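In the previous chapter we treated chains in isolation. Here, by contrast, the input contains two separate entities that must be folded as one system, with a combined length of 664 residues.
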Amino acid sequence: MATTKVGDVPVETTLEVAKVAMPRSPRLMGRFNRWDTPWLNSKLLAGVAIIAAILLIGIIGRMVWNTDLAFTAKSPLNLPPVGFVNSRQQEGTWAHPLGTENSGRDMLALLIVGAPNSFMVGVVAAAIGMSIGTFLGFSAGFIGGKLDDVIRIVSDVTITIPALMVLIVIQSLLRQVELSTMALLIALFAWPSPTRLIRAQVLTMRESGYVQMAKLSGASTFAIMFKEIMPNLTPYLFASFIGNATGAILTAVGLETLGLGPQRVPTLGGTIYDAISAAALLRNMWWWWGIPTVLLAFMFIGLLLINLGFDEIANPRLRQSSQ
Amino acid sequence: MEHTSERLPVLKVRDLKVYYETPRGDVLAVDGITFDLYQGETLGLVGESGCGKSTAAMGILQLVNPPGRIAGGQVILDGQNLLGMSDEALRHVRWAKLALIPQGAMNSLNPTMRVRDQIRDVIVAHQRKQSGRNVQTRIFELLTMVGLPSRVYDLFPHELSGGMKQRVCIAMAIALNPMVIIADESTSALDVVVQRVVAQTMLKVKQALGVSMIMIGHDMGLMAQMVDRIAVMYAGKIVEIAPVREFFAAPKHPYSQLLIESVPSLKERKPLKITEGITHDPRNPPPGCIFQLRCPFVMDKCRVVAPPVQEVTPGQLVACHLYENSGDGSLIDVRDAARNS
């Protein structure tokens, strides 16, 4: 080391060297700015913000708004939103800021109760489908052999069945559909694509160097599955889950809009169905079908943005420079 | 090291056969190789691509995946035959006594685990009753031994360079003080400077621990510097094993001669000798010698009888018909005999 003879200058230099070489130093080598991470990309943030806003409407709304208004004959009929006039020249009032529909349900209360319902059906269905899919895909990829053949054939066959059609038939046969029943029914068709995805990933990872090394170095099968392979699957699981949830919500809303959803509980799709069957379009009651449609559109845009955000995390080539 | 008379074989490989199944018959990737690995010795295993070097290593480690299978032979490590051992027993022996430094260090470390966790897993999988503190000191010790700074302890593999990753793999291989380490082309994916560093690390570690090592590779220059004995493989068979000095001074098998001639020289400009003929279909080798299709000295006998392994000079084993027992027990080159008569 080139030391100068000026008093305590060399001391400082050695101190710095020691700091760098110190074992177990907090990760100085990593990013210098902890806000500079791909997880904070604008798409993901926007998507999360939209979905959070919709869910917050449902949570905070329940506290500040009377949710009983979501049921029949609790309010005056056919009121427009504030600032608009309906065909009978009635003006909207602040008692019902988003108006009411023709059986006296308050639109704001409908949204507060209905939006989380539609969302939850999709998320629960996707979660069940993902769990089944991950389990089957993992077993098929890892164990292989006959089991793999069976799982692969069953999931490939299930994928070719048009889910919506089968669900329409089943739901129209059931008199009364609960939210949970609907979630389970949708989950019945939500497992094959995660199964295939996970199976493919496990197959490639099983042959990778580090799994071979782990096997060679005496790691147990359990350790290989959950310590070596699982963490590497996480990005795929995330992406697949968001895609699956979008699909499941779409299916749920589709069924509700066809009038096959739960009848007792308000849902967004159910509201659109009521609006269509009461000829809301002809009666110029745009707020009845328009507001739930806009909310649904936002929900899907939010999920899409989250999906794109995850893409950006997983694939650095999609990233733009932060400045 | 070369003069110790009581050299103990640590690893004995006897007639090991590894075949790959294909719809049109088995590919004889490793077809009956036999050799001994002595205590503290480095054995080089060289040969062209596809001659079965890595498959032989996988066969010794019992890591042959379908469609490959071990078709026969014995691998005796420290008195125990690894073939026919139960998976559970194998799990305990492997890595504790027999470790691997893999071919591509880039893919051999789990991208989601820190270096410390990967090394710890190796240690904990074999030696359960240990305090975390002990394991931690041991990991630092290992990192120092392979010349890595201690900050590597907390890093992820993607934060390391190729040479550093390779050295982490070396640290993992020596974590349990094995008797035998197999280095499967451990330096071939690195540039020459890093290659040298990694090779020196291996040599240092080997001398410090006194382990035996099998080095697989095709870098003849590196082999000449690193190994004590060298084994040449061709098409699934070992054609020559010799102490490294004798081998480079006087290779006996025609294939070894061609192999050494192919090494470019700094001093002279020489044309590259490309051997005539092609390698046979590894599914059905011709009767007789396996090198007959490319051998410049091929004789009628070579097409009929497979050459036996003979000790041409002390320690130098060659499988070739060019060397014949002269009657008084010494071996002579048939070509010399023909010229003299």
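Chain B has two domains: 9-235, 252-340. Chain B has a mean pLDDT of 85. Compare these points with the single-chain example from earlier in the chapter.
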